[in-house]
């Protein structure tokens, strides 16, 4: 849905989305990096299992919830990517202990 | 910069590093007050100046001159002695001006003599059929990605709604080589007449010239459909099409991305949880805090500046931030306050910045059908509650938003009513033939953002704290 502007010269950062290497850029939030990737990054909701993608990108809607480095229910739009970060697309509720 | 606050007490704590917060913190520190600025985002700027210190979109005319004003505010703040913490989520503020803030997964408590809330605005909910589908986002979301990551739409894209931000975003997307297939303008025809009496002030404001040239820039490249009276998104687990009615004619177009926008409203959660009185604003159709001319709220020591004080735009937010900080300085260090810009000057700056606002509010007042949905349209995105569910609850006795929580859990999901609260109030008001003021709003409480029990349990405790809850 989104492409990178050709004049964007920020250094690359490699993250992993469900184990697959994805090229992000320094300064991207997790949600922006996910939306810029070609992966299917739709989460499913805790209530009905409906598929969602981020809606507001500013910390309000919680539709960007994602598991980051083993911690569930993080707001991906508020977390910057770091080298080697492990992202898991969250399906349904946050799991206990995660 | 994601470290806990250095001290336990501050003269002034400012919450939010958008235009109002940046100006307030710099002014407060300039007056020699110990100042802490807490902000949830990665860097300064809030929404309007998002990523101002880091944006990869560096050619100044791409984002526009109004954006780069933010760089001066950041520079002034950095030149001051204010302590600034980003990625700091304030989850509690009480009447004793005690603030709980989560930084890097651990919570700290600080106490302030004065608190300036600069938590800004969020986009008004736009509850149309299909607005929860992947591929439907707010215009602000797209603008956030554009500013902070230079990302632009590259597949079939429709922008729908109304207001200045919509045109600015469209212009920015086009300047960066992004794709927009169609713009659906939902401005009600009648609004043009209603706004006419306020046109003089608007014509004299900078909005007019800038707005006109931006609309011209966009209309030269994109098909714009005006007078849109119905709007729906459709698809199975992914947006596939947008259908709309304009001039009595229905049309459906294929789309991969739908960006919605119908103005912004104050982000009230922290202020309301602190006990600040709010009233329903009939023109802006939202809750606004009850404030005096310096931004002081009904809770002693808490002031509100910026769009959280009622929507006024970025220039007004900057001045309101300075006024609130000046008032804090007058109370805490009168001698230092005398060296700050005079109040009369600030007030005249504010009047200038607010010129034309009534015109914009009247012209872009969203139509009822885009605020008050019906049938299966989702109202509460978190708990997936529809308009019909809410009307059914009203029919069996739910009187207001707080009772409705017990019936349907509306507003009890992670967003804590931020994306359903206004819709619930207006929907229930209409169903019960009451005013929104009479229906009221959710009773908001700390924590105003979710934190884990583990983080709460790890909060430092005194012996007295433990004695208060441990038996025997």
Set down the secondary structure blueprint.
The complex is a heterodimer of chains A (98) and B (472).
Chain A: E1 2-4, E2 12-17, E3 20-25, H1 30-36, E4 43-44, E5 51-52, E6 65-68, E7 71-75, E8 86-88
Parallel strand pairs in A: 2-8
Antiparallel strand pairs in A: 2-3, 4-5, 6-7, 6-8
Chain B: E1 9-15, H1 19-30, E2 35-38, H2 60-63, H3 65-78, E3 83-85, E4 88-93, E5 98-103, E6 106-117, E7 121-123, E8 136-138, H4 139-149, E9 151-153, E10 157-162, H5 164-175, E11 182-185, H6 189-195, H7 199-203, H8 206-219, E12 223-225, E13 228-234, E14 241-246, E15 249-254, E16 257-262, E17 264-266, H9 269-273, E18 278-281, E19 286-289, E20 302-304, H10 314-332, H11 334-337, H12 343-353, H13 357-363, H14 368-371, E21 378-380, E22 385-386, H15 387-395, H16 401-408, H17 421-431, H18 436-439, H19 453-457, H20 463-469
Parallel strand pairs in B: 1-2, 1-6, 2-3, 6-20, 8-16, 10-11, 10-16, 11-12
Antiparallel strand pairs in B: 4-5, 5-6, 7-17, 13-14, 14-15, 18-19, 21-22
Helix pairs in contact in B: 1-3, 1-10, 4-5, 5-8, 6-13, 10-12, 15-17
């Amino acid at each position: 849905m989104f492409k990178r502007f050709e004049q964007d010269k920020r250094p690359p950062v490699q993250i992993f989305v469900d184990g697959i290497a994805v090229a992000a850029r320094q300064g991207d939030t997790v949600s922006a990096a996910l939306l810029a990737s070609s992966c299917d990054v739709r989460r499913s909701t805790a209530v009905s299992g409906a598929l969602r993608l981020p809606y507001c990108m500013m910390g309000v809607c919680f539709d960007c919830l994602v598991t980051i480095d083993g911690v569930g229910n993080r707001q991906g739009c508020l977390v910057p990517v770091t080298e080697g970060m492990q992202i898991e697309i969250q399906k349904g509720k946050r799991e206990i202990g995660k | 910069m994601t470290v806990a606050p250095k001290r336990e007490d501050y003269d002034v704590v400012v919450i939010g590093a958008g235009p109002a917060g940046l100006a307030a913190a710099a002014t407060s520190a300039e007056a020699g007050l110990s100042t802490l600025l807490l902000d949830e985002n990665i860097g300064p700027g809030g929404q309007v100046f998002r990523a101002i210190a880091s944006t990869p979109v560096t050619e100044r005319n791409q984002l526009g001159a109004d954006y780069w004003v933010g760089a001066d505010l950041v520079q002034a703040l950095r030149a001051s002695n204010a302590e600034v913490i980003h990625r700091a989520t304030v989850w509690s503020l009480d009447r004793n001006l005690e603030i709980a803030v989560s930084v890097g997964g651990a919570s700290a408590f600080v106490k302030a003599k004065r608190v300036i809330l600069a938590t800004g605005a969020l986009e008004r909910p736009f509850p149309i059929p299909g607005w929860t589908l992947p591929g439907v986002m707010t215009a602000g979301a797209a603008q956030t990605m554009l500013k902070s990551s230079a990302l632009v739409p590259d597949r079939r894209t429709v922008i729908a709604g109304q207001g200045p931000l919509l045109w600015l975003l469209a212009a920015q997307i086009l300047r960066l080589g992004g794709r927009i297939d169609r713009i659906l303008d939902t401005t009600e025809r009648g609004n043009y007449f209603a706004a006419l009496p306020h046109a003089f002030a608007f014509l004299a404001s900078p909005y007019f010239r800038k707005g006109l040239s931006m609309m011209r820039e966009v209309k030269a490249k994109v098909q714009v459909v005006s007078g849109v009276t119905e709007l729906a998104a459709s698809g199975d687990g992914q947006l596939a099409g947008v259908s709309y009615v304009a001039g009595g004619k229905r049309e459906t177009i294929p789309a991969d991305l739908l960006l919605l926008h119908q103005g912004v409203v104050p982000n009230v959660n922290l202020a309301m949880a602190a006990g600040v009185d709010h009233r329903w604003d009939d023109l802006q159709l939202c809750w606004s805090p009850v404030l005096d001319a310096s931004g002081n709220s009904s809770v002693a020591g808490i002031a509100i500046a910026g769009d959280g004080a009622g929507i006024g735009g970025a220039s007004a937010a900057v001045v309101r931030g300075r006024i609130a900080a000046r008032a804090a300085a007058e109370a805490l260090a009168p001698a230092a306050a005398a060296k700050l810009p005079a109040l009369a000057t600030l007030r005249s700056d504010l009047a200038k910045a607010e010129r034309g606002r009534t015109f914009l509010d009247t012209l872009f007042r969203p139509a009822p059908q885009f605020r008050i949905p019906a049938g299966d349209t989702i109202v509460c995105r978190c708990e997936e509650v529809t308009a019909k569910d809410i009307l059914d609850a009203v029919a069996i006795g739910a009187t207001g938003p707080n009772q409705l929580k017990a019936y349907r859990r509306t507003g009890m999901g992670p967003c804590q009513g931020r994306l359903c609260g206004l819709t619930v109030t207006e929907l229930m008001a209409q169903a019960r033939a009451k005013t929104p003021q009479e229906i009221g709003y959710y009773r908001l409480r700390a924590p105003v953002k979710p934190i884990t029990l583990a983080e709460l349990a790890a909060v430092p405790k005194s012996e007295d704290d433990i004695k208060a809850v441990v038996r025997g």
